[in-house]
């Protein structure tokens, strides 16, 4: 293993009805004026009674609060700026997002803006850095992004529709409330997209250029991927299966809190490519990842074919026992196909056409250019990718 830091300060409250403890938790972290952040006004958070339960919990702890709604998938910088303005004027000192990655990332952006004296886009473009954010607590309703335990934030800048990220440990939530029952109402497509995202957060760390022994981290990652593989197939067909929902919810957090990448370099090239798909076409993040990964894999596998063979053998049961160096390509391609077969089993796309988008050559060029913009001309670490490489992968993915 290479040297690493592992920091997971988030207190997890897992299980049924734990959302009723939100007020107690905010108070324990010295919050007084809370901004509750969620999605569509009048949407499920309100209609299900969840928001009312959270209000009751905060009232019971003697806390004041304001509601801030309107978050959409691929969250927008403009809404973050509005939240910063309102939060400052209202004296907000604690943020409580209810939802998934988009809502949590919006909260992180608002927290950065309130705690610092700079324009939030300067943070996203890398012009400034900070180690200050407001304290955040999370009530999770979607198993997917892992933002409830991670240090990362991704926002869409409407000027040019570019997705950009910033990460610092100061943005890791103080607590995360995870009630699997809150995910029962998710549509099958959203459940499956979340599962693909969880898998990809692990795979981006699994496909590593690190050549020292990371077998312990491998076993952790492989066990997580096998659990998600199976639980997703159950949850899309039986949405109120508590065990499957619980597995996905906990796996989503573990996949993105640094555990499955400990001791090695991560890649995240597929994520960077998908971010531009999401920015241009507003697709579901997990579905976009599923649509791109197979093409990325076929483009780069010769860098380390043994890694792909191991992935197929350990996660999808591909028989590699008789594989020699001369025919490992067959095992590699079977491993990639096994991933795509799993995607299809939960109705996830494996091409851009299946995703429902048909980018032109000019659009592909634009996305590739945005991918490498401000990143020294390349992305990824398993095999560093230039603009020309990204164009080739996106053309393959069509």
From TrEMBL:
The lineage of its organism: Bacteria, Bacillati, Bacillota, Clostridia, Lachnospirales. Residues 9-180 form the Alcohol dehydrogenase iron-type/glycerol dehydrogenase GldA domain. Keywords: Oxidoreductase. It comes from Blautia faecis. The keyword Oxidoreductase applies. The keyword Membrane does not apply. SUPFAM superfamilies: Dehydroquinate synthase-like (SSF56796). This is Iron-containing alcohol dehydrogenase. It comes from the Bacteria. Residues 191-396 form the Fe-containing alcohol dehydrogenase-like C-terminal domain.
């Amino acid at each position: 293993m290479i040297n690493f830091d592992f920091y997971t300060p988030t207190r997890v409250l897992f299980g049924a009805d734990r959302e009723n403890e939100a007020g107690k938790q905010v108070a324990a972290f010295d919050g007084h004026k809370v901004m509750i952040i969620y999605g569509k006004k009048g949407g499920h958070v309100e209609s299900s009674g969840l928001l009312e339960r959270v209000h009751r919990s905060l009232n019971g702890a003697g806390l004041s609060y304001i509601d801030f709604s309107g978050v959409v998938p691929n969250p927008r910088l403009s809404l973050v700026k509005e939240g910063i303005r309102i939060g400052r004027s209202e004296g907000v000192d604690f943020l409580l997002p209810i939802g998934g990655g988009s809502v949590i990332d919006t909260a992180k952006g608002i927290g950065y803006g309130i705690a610092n004296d700079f324009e939030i886009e300067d943070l996203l473009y890398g012009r400034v850095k900070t180690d200050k954010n407001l304290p955040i607590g999370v009530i999770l309703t979607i198993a997917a992004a892992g933002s409830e335990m991670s240090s990362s934030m991704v926002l869409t800048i409407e000027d040019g529709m570019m997705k950009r990220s910033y990460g610092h440990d100061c943005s890791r939530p103080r607590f995360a409330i995870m009630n699997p029952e809150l995910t029962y109402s998710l549509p099958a497509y959203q459940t499956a997209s979340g599962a693909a995202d969880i898998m990809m957060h692990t795979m981006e760390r699994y496909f590593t250029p690190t050549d020292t022994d990371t077998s312990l981290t491998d076993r952790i990652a492989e066990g997580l991927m096998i659990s998600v593989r199976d639980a997703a197939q159950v949850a899309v067909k039986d949405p109120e299966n508590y065990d499957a929902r619980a597995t996905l919810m906990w796996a989503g957090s573990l996949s993105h809190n640094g555990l499955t990448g400990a001791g090695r370099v991560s890649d995240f090239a597929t994520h960077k490519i998908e971010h531009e798909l999401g920015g241009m076409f507003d697709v579901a993040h997990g579905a976009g990842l599923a649509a791109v990964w197979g093409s990325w894999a076929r483009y780069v596998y010769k860098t380390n074919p043994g890694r792909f063979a191991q992935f197929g053998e350990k996660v999808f049961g591909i028989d590699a026992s008789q594989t020699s160096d001369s025919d490992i390509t067959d095992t590699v391609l079977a491993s990639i196909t096994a991933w795509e077969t799993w995607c299809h089993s939960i109705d996830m796309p494996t091409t851009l056409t299946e995703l429902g988008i048909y980018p032109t050559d000019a659009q592909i060029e634009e996305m590739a250019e945005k991918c490498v913009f401000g990143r020294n001309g390349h992305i990824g670490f398993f095999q560093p990718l230039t603009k020309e490489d990204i164009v080739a992968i996106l053309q393959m993915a069509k």
